[in-house]
Amino acid sequence: MKISEKLDYLDAVELEGEAVLSELFAALARKEYQDEAQVFARPEEQVEMRTTSLRIEAPRLAAFDAVARRFELSRNEAIAYAIESFISDAINGYSLGAAESKPNPNNLNKAQRFSDERDSLISKLDCDADIQADIKDISHNDAIAKMKELV
Q1: Contact at 8 Å (CB) between 145 and 20?
Q2: When comparing pLDDT for 17 and 80, which is higher?
Q3: Alpha-carbon distance 99 to 52, whole Å?
């Protein structure tokens, strides 16, 4: 079973979809060091795949590859997680900053202001509704964690 499938399983089943990426890897480590049998589900859904290329400094790519190999991730799988992490961090970080900086004439609590800013930011992105829904899904777990901290 691929490591990405293991991480997806851990996120959905063990961490109830509320883990950030670092928590997923912590759960993976705990799983690997337990003597129990590991049973992971196989996702059935197939999505369209596209290729891309990027230029990155050789030492940075070597470091990335070394970490990916440690967790039995292909470069492609690791980059996919990095992209998801970027999307989540960018959307939620920006939304948090906007919620903390803008005036609050309606006296909304911090969690509601964050949620409203997040929804507004995503709705204004230059992409179709399906991509916006995917962005909401990708950044959902981190958003929930941030809202819990704000309450």
Answers
A1: yes
A2: 80
A3: 34
The Cα–Cα gap between 65 and 87 comes to 21
Residue type, 110: K
Structure tokens at 78: 């690791």
To 10 degrees, the CA torsion angle through 20, 24, 26, 30?
Answer: 150
pLDDT of 49-79, one tens digit each?
Answer: 788 888 999 999 999 999 999 999 999 889 9
Count Cα atoms within 13 angstroms, Cβ side, for 83. Answer: 10
Q: Please state at what angle helix 58-70 crosses helix 75-101, rounded to 10 degrees.
A: 100
What is the sign, positive or negative, of the torsion defined by CA atoms of 140, 143, 149, 151? negative
Q: What is the pTM of this model?
A: 0.70
Q: Are 141 and 11 in contact (CB under 8 A)?
A: yes
Rounded Cα distance between 4 and 10, Å, is 10
| Single-letter code of the amino acid located at 14 | E
Residue 101 has φ and ψ, to the nearest 5°, of: -100, -30
Q: In this structure, what token pair is assigned to residue 77?
A: 């799988």
Q: Under a CB-based contact definition with an 8 Å cutoff, are residues 145 and 18 in contact?
A: yes
